[in-house]
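User: I've been trying to design a sequence by hand for this structure and keep getting stuck. Would you show me what you'd pick, starting by listing the structure so we're on the same page?

Assistant: Good idea, let's start from the same input. This is the structure you sent:
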């Protein structure tokens, strides 16, 4: 049976259980089960590679010793073991991060995990289905990456935690353009389920890891922070799946919940899609300079990213149009960004990249810290010919960035090869200052085409209404900031 069919069968089984209510709980249930199975698969590999290897958790809690036997414990006995033995033990594991780092990871993963299922017979059926997947197989690990991505999309469709997922095409394009090197610290301050970090790990391993020593270097250069429990667990599992043996650098915390001055400027690379359109809890803004205090999440993250980057460090950040044209505090933040960093490239994405989850237009800001901006190159990624919008069944693909990748040029030459074309244009810092740091600059080479077809006009009208509502939400947030936080 294919992995996708296994996952579908598992979801069908869970729907029969009275304790599992909706896709969010199904994903939460799957998450800790996946974690333990993937963790144990990695344990088996480490046991083969290392002499005198000791299990980081008591051996009877390893997946193979309670879950692998299809005729093993089931029903009430299984529920009693999981609820009264497995969970309490792993939640309270005595594991020091220095002396038992993998045990520490298990304890952190289970700190807020929960067993939603109430029927031990159904839970045994789920476990038996999971055992049809071999996570020691490189091919199945690769296939599981696709399924993992689909699970996250399903969660979004349920209307829960849409910020967890950034389309793979966007993460891969960003990582390719940033090109993280072996030994460079790679940080995502809002890492969600770890899409950027997993992609960076694969990029470095494929291009730069040649020896066992290189592999150990890679193990320590990836880090991230995630505020919510479920995506944090998914991110930890994702890192295990991508070969990070001790993902202790994936912290469960609110990145913004400490003064900006407490951060060290020590990160070589930051790649992230911070939450936007939301407001932080009261008091978080006090962690930032008085003249740039706001509760708008994306604005706070942008300040933090500039602070945490080291001199010469480089970043790529996905941000909404509201950040580009916003005034007030947003203007001050953009002025700071352009003075402290070289915003060398701003890639404007099609408005349907994140469809159907949001119609808000987004952009990728690429910048290096240490030199002020002299000019900004804009590149508008066009929809492919014959496609009016991306959607769930026809998502954006990496190949849709091909023209931009060909145009990109070389960092070592300062992108001197770049030329203006239909989709690319350059704006000087003087022009940006004259616009009061409004970075929402339209493509001067493309004129609006007049359309008369009724069906097309109706579709355009519906899309415009969505965009207008999205802009209203952004403007409401901006207005709230201008009035002192009252929205």
């Amino acid at each position: 049976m294919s992995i996708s069919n296994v996952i579908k069968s598992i979801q069908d089984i869970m729907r029969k259980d009275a304790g599992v209510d909706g896709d969010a709980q199904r994903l939460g249930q799957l998450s800790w089960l996946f974690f333990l199975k993937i963790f144990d698969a990695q344990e088996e590999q480490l046991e083969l590679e290392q002499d005198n290897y000791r299990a980081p958790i008591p051996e009877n809690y390893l997946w193979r010793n309670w879950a692998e036997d299809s005729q093993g414990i089931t029903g009430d006995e299984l529920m009693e073991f999981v609820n009264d033995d497995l969970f309490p033990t792993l939640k309270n594991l005595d594991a020091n991060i220095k002396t038992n780092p993998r045990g520490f990871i298990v304890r952190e993963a289970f700190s807020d995990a929960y067993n939603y299922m109430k029927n031990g017979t159904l839970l045994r059926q789920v476990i038996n289905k999971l055992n049809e997947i071999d996570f020691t197989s490189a091919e199945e690990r690769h296939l599981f990456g696709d399924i993992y991505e689909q699970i996250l999309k399903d969660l979004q469709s349920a209307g829960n935690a849409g910020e967890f997922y950034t389309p793979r095409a966007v993460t891969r394009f960003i990582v390719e353009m940033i090109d993280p090197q072996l030994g460079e610290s790679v940080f995502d301050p809002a890492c969600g389920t770890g899409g950027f970090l997993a992609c960076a790990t694969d990029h470095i391993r494929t291009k730069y890891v040649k020896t066992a020593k290189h592999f150990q270097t890679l193990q320590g250069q990836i880090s991230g922070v995630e505020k919510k429990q479920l995506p944090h667990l998914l991110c930890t599992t994702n890192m295990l799946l991508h070969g990070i043996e001790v993902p202790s650098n994936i912290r469960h915390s609110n990145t913004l919940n400490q003064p900006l001055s407490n951060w060290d400027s020590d990160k070589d690379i930051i790649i992230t899609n911070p939450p936007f359109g939301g407001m932080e809890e009261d008091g978080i803004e006090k962690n930032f300079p008085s003249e740039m205090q706001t509760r708008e999440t994306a604005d706070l993250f942008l300040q933090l990213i500039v602070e945490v980057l080291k001199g010469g460090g480089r970043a790529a950040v996905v941000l909404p149009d509201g950040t580009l044209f916003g005034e007030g505090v947003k203007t001050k933040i953009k002025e700071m960004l352009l003075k402290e960093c070289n915003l060398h490239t701003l890639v404007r994405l099609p408005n349907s990249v994140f469809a159907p989850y949001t119609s808000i237009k987004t952009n990728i800001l690429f910048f290096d810290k240490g030199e002020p901006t002299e000019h900004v190159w804009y590149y508008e990624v066009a929809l492919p010919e014959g496609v009016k919008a991306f959607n769930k069944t026809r998502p954006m693909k990496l190949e849709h960035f091909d023209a931009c990748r060909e145009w990109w040029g070389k960092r070592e030459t300062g992108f001197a090869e770049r030329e203006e074309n239909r989709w690319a244009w350059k704006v000087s810092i003087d022009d940006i200052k004259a616009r009061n740091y409004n970075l929402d600059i339209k493509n001067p080479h493309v004129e609006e085409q007049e359309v008369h077809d009724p069906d097309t006009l109706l579709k355009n009208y519906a899309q415009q209404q969505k965009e207008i509502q999205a802009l209203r939400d952004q403007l409401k947030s901006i207005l709230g900031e201008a009035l002192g936080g009252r929205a």
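That's my pick for every position. To get oriented when you compare it with your attempt: The chain has two domains: 3-137, 151-482. Residues 159-163, 449-453 have pLDDT under 50 and may be disordered.
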